[in-house]
Amino acid sequence: MSSSDTPDKMPETQERHHTENNHVSSFDHQVAGQSLILRYDPTTICKCLVHREYVFYQHMPDALRPHVATFKGTTPVKISIGEASQENGSLQHNTRGFKVDPSRYRALQKTDRIYNNEDEEIYQFMKLEDLMYPYRQPCILDLKVGVRQHGDDAPQEKVDYQTQKCLNTTSHSLGLRLCGMKRYLIREQTYEKKDKFYGRQIGDDELKNEIINFLHNGEEYRFDLVDPIISQLQKLEAVIRTLEGYRFYSCSLVIIYDGEIENNAVGDSVDPNSMNNNVPEVPPQQTSNANSVNDLVKARIVDFAHATYDGFEKDSVRHIGPDHGFLLGLSTLLEVFNEFKKQSL
């Protein structure tokens, strides 16, 4: 669909009391972002619908679609607000809908509310491909990409805040900032996690090390993932260079792979902090639950609430050329992975 087409209207729900709550459950793999995400079915998540992001998905260039989660439509979800008692996550199901902790309610305030009364609130959600499928122990690296995070429509207070945040972090120098990460440690059978606050504190070299350490499962590096990651990043970079006037403000790039490998026979344990000095030879390739090399690892762009292009939603700012800030981030990633590949040979 061309970006010059007239943007679609927001989806309407004819039966306002009909919801999909029987299918929706808690989603346990969100490592960053404020959006409320639920699991719709084994291959689909649903994310609270923000108008700009919804329209962007409708009119996304075809060349970009292989590099994002597949859009699968919309669904209404019944929500109630209150203290959630579930230990893992902020959601629990009851007769009035999914109970969302008040700390997560902010995510719903930008979402289209279909219906509300004293007993229930029904919100519109987007259905998207679950990028964690078919992984059993998904490992996720969430990187904010670009040197600018605020959208063209942001109020001055937010412009000032976001500008300072970028200037004072690796966003300014590398076009990347760590927003969230979790990697599966085979021996401990648990996850190591890092959050956005950690990402704001680390410097350039530390971030590059974290990107490489993401591929370490506590016992060895997943060298089998490096070439597929480089290939996907190169294809994405080529597409972004062709997108005249597009800006991907506040978008993230997620890299996801399965931390559970079928053959758990691993080589000698390697200290990830020693990467710059000594890299072991590539061990025999391990296999995961992925069905093909295309599923072995995924690199995808997510979160388009502040993305724009010429004529999008009557935005008044016209941008010239491709998004060089986003390209800087991709260039940094390619530099990191290519250097890692050279050291591993």
TrEMBL record:
The keyword Transferase applies. Keywords: Kinase, Transferase. One of its GO terms (molecular function) is inositol hexakisphosphate kinase activity. Its EC number is 2.7.-.-. GO terms for biological process: inositol phosphate biosynthetic process; phosphatidylinositol phosphate biosynthetic process. Residues 1-27 are annotated as: Disordered. GO terms for cellular component: cytoplasm; nucleus. It comes from the Eukaryota. Residues 1-21 have a biased composition (Basic and acidic residues). It is an enzyme of class 2 (transferase). InterPro entries: IPK, IPK_sf. PANTHER family: INOSITOL POLYPHOSPHATE KINASE, KINASE. Belongs to the inositol phosphokinase (IPK) family. This is Kinase.
